[in-house]
Protein 1
Amino acid sequence: MKLEINNVSKRFKDKTAVNQFSMELEIGQCVGLIGPNGAGKSTLIKIIADILHSDEGEVLLDGKRISKMKREIGYLPQYPNFFQWMTARETLLFMGQLSGISKKRLIEDIPTILAKVGLTGEQNRKVRTFSGGMKQRLGIAQALLHKPSLIVMDEPVSALDPIGRREVLNLIQEIKKETTILLSTHILSDAEEICERFVIIKDGTKIEDTTMTELISRNHEPVVYVEIAPKDHSWIQLVDQLPYVKKTEMMGSKVKITLENIDVHKNMLIQNALDNDVDIVRFEVSGNDTLEEIFLKLVVSA
Amino acid sequence: MKPFFILMNKEYFQMIRDFKIIWLPIVFIFLGMTQPVLTYYLPAILGALGGGQGITIDPTMVQQEGGQVLATTLGSQFDQLGIMIIVISMMAMIQADKASGMLAFILTRPVTVWSYIAGKIISNYLLVIVSVTFGYFVSYLYVSYLFTDVPISHMLLALLIYLTWVLFMVSFTLMISTIFNGQGVIALIGIVFLLICRMIIGIHPTIDLINPAGMSQHAMSLLVTGSVDSSLYVNLIITFLWVLFTLLVSHFWISQKKFQQD
């Protein structure tokens, strides 16, 4: 299984939703498509699920056009609605049969899949009575039913409360062992939790395609945060003049100081502060930027 | 072919769930009853209720032929209230699936647009056939009881002819339901267009020939005069072409994903 997205573009009237987007997805990967609202994530997901036609470019699964390979794709819409008057079991029977599975096999498989998504007791309840989390889990059950080689999920957890979110995230963790997953989200901690690889999209353009570890090591900065008593703020100008200090930046009561080489220079900086009799409240060697900070940097500045 | 049956099954299942399969035939049965009963008892009703003085009811007027009354059932009941009921009961056919996102969702499965459309139109048309036929038969029973007999062969042939006009009503509603998103707009366009089709009959022979509502006229004249006009066959073919056209437009609209533009 290999998904290729080649130079896909999509325009809506005057707005370009997706612009020359390309990426590849190998078997067994879990890729998070992240970007701010309106970045074109949903449009791209819909093109991959063959709900929208792209204006340019193509999406190939194993070298064949996606419209010929629908059997191999499981799709979970952002707000799975289903038919309100069907029960959970009927919904799965209906969607499963449409995916080309025989009724006999479905009747055998449905209890297993309902157990997997935690809806065993609810199989004869109408979808109308389901909560958002339950609908989402039913949506996942539906996407798994025909054992697709690729599962595409549009914002699987964004609309859920913390409990529903936890349930669905755990479920995705579980199914990720068996299939290839492409999901979009604007909640970074979710993506961070389930995906190894991220594709960041902004204004329809891919601005980053990387893994978590790569992203963090690349954004590892030699920075210390110093909090000092207000009376000593004049020291900051002094620091700015030091040869090994690249940059100082006030952040509220803290000063962010970027050094040439953190290991060598951080003690020199403390020494300098002590020499100047500065009242240090806190001195902190920065941890890594969180994904959120990196994301903001990429999306806002780029 | 298989997804078509699954989709059609689902349609029937839904009709049973919301009792459409019961109320639509009942409505048509009432419609079918109305014409013969009203025509027969109207003089008596007028005599009993209206201030009788000064009104003479022409006794020859009451002596209507059975075929004539049955024809009026088609022309005055089914072609007026009947059209409105058919359009209103069918207007959500595709619009509801568009609104809930189920249309897009179903098409992410290996399902062709044709099997989706065929599932919709065949299931809904069959339901309308059953409803109209029930109503028509009830009307026929009342007619034979209260008026003169209508030959069964004429009665059945007229029904078949009339049902092609009904097919156009259903396929036209399906097309409007595919293109437009508001139920009100769909109902308005559907009802107004079909009523206009019905009203312009008789304006000009050429217009009648290409007008699917002409089929209704043919069915009526068969009941009244006992013979069909030779233009029936051309009209029949053109009606089928119109039906094909509405289905092609719907197919084009769905496969080009025009419904996704928001």
Protein 2
Amino acid sequence: MAVVVRIPTPLRKLTGNQNEVREEGGTIREILKNLELHYPGIGERLADESGELRRFINVYVNEEDIRFREGLDTPIKPGDEVSIIPAIAGGAA
Amino acid sequence: MGMPGSRPLNREILLPASLSKEILVHCLSVRPEEGCGLVAADSSGRAVAVLPITNALHSPVRYQMETREQFDAMKRLRREGWSLWAIFHSHPHSEPAPSPTDIRLAFYPDCLYIIAGLGTDPPILRCFSIVDGKISEHILRIVPDSVTNLD
């Protein structure tokens, strides 16, 4: 079952400038794995060596941050929308 | 001109006066914390709206946009047919120039970075691109709203 994954501007070079793609997977972990298969290089931008989501990457399923659900094991159902949103951060120090 | 390590000024960026004011009003309202937010452009690339976002760190020297508000702001951009034009934040006490932290965490290379320096009277806005750790400063011109409203 494929769902829509929204790709943020900084990662669109890896998806051939597509702002959304369709990807298969029953959980976010599977979606990320398939993203890497189809768009090599995107996986390491999203997750670290241990496979955990990078600190400055936020993933939403519909209206919910997966950190407040089941993290990478958050289940995906038909019609869900997945959004990848790099944090915006910085500061003087 | 510019800071050590920066590349030459290379583009002229037009920011409508009302948006410049909105950025400063927001940043001054949360001082001494750093203020932050997004600036949207319409389909022709003109800056059209300022979307202030809460600094989740509530710090005078660091900012991170509150995730939910950032998500909602991105959705609003999509709904209105806007694009992300600039990311702004303030340096309440220091020079409005990208810090090593700003450079390290600049994940949006296609977008402008506007920094408001609140340590001077009047405050100063400066505008940069940060790509692959390299800074370019642009000439930021605050223009009457009518200048960018020409159709």
